Amino acid sequence: MSDDRDLSPAAIFEDLKAQDILLVDVREPAEFANERIHGAILAPLSTFEPKAIPTDSKRRVIFQCGSGKRSRMALERFMQETGADAAHMAGGIGEWKAAALPTIQINPATGQVQDHGRY
User: Cys bridge to 31: 27, 47, 53, 112, which one at CB 3.0-4.6 A?
Assistant: First the structure.
């Protein structure tokens, strides 16, 4: 079910560059450490505390995960507990990468951080 709270990676990328959003990754720490989106903060769904997410009137909170399922759950819980406006990235980091948008990744062979594009 799609609505105005299901945002595309391309729209999120533009808002992230403009610093209009706070991108919150709700995947687990190992997933985040392996590969993440520039500028995202980590708030794993397994320990999710909606009221701990920083909110202000200048930036809309956007949740992101691997496929869009966990971020949708975080979004619903966040809105229910805080009343703040928010949305999530439909398709998660999988769709983000399919759109060839930049990520930070750890090279498993070397342990080095690899920057795959910047904005």
Answer: 27
- Whether residue 26 lies inside any domain: the answer is yes
**Residue 22 to residues 1, 32, 54, 108, 110, Cα–Cα distance (Å):** 23, 16, 8, 28, 31
Range of the domain at 86: 6-113
Cβ neighbours of residue 4 closer than 8 Å, sequence gap 6 or more? 87
pTM comes to 0.90
CA distance 21 to 84: 13
Would residue 1 count as lying in a domain?
A: no
**CATH at residue 48:** 3.40.250.10
Mean pLDDT, 10 residues at a time, the chain of 119 residues: 80 93 96 92 96 87 96 96 93 94 86 69
Provide the domain count of the chain. 1
